[in-house]
Amino acid sequence: MDFKKNIWVENEKNINEFSSEYWNNPEEEKEKIWGKWETNFTELDSKFKKKGLYQQYINIINNNSVVVEKKRILSLGAGICMLEAQILKKNPEVERIINVEFSRHRIFEIAPNIFSKYSADKNKVELVLGNFFEIKVDSGSVGIVLMSQAFHHADKPHNLLKEIYRVLDSTGCVIIIGEHYFSKSEILSRFFKHFIKYLINYKGIRKISNIWPSWRAMFPIDKIKGDHHYSYSQYKSMFNDAGFIWERYVFTEYNNQGFILKKNI
Question: For the segment 90-109, what is each residue's pLDDT rounded down to a tens digit?
Answer without folding.
Answer: 999 999 999 999 999 999 99
